[in-house]
Specification:
By secondary structure, this protein is mainly beta. 0% of the residues lie in helices and 44% in strands.
């Protein structure tokens, strides 16, 4: 599951990725696209056990998210805690809205 918030200055993405090791996550940002990929390993079972129900996926995964604007790639920050990835994506300065003052003529 993933949430994406956008404001004038930046975007914030949170993604639930339980069971994934931080070292097996890869985050790539190019202009206005974030790619999140990684590997979730299958649970190890005792030799004589079999699954009764298996709902949690495993294996490689990849997800592309189109962002609402171009990102300042060098300033992207990512943290991973308790299975939740948080990525802060600052908007490139040249595309931020600017207030234009109107002068009387």
């Amino acid at each position: 599951a993933m949430n994406v918030w956008a404001a004038e200055d930046s975007a914030l993405i949170t993604a639930e990725i339980p069971g994934v090791n931080q070292n097996e996550l890869e985050i790539n940002v190019t202009r206005d696209t974030l790619t999140l990929s990684g590997v979730r390993n299958a649970d190890e079972l005792p030799e004589d056990a079999g699954y009764h129900r298996r709902e949690r996926p495993y294996g490689e995964f990849s997800r592309n998210i189109q962002l609402p604007y171009t990102v300042e790639v060098d300033k992207v920050k990512a943290t991973f805690k308790n299975g939740v990835l948080k990525v802060e994506l600052p908007r490139i300065e040249a595309e931020k809205p600017r207030k234009i003052s109107v002068k009387a003529s």
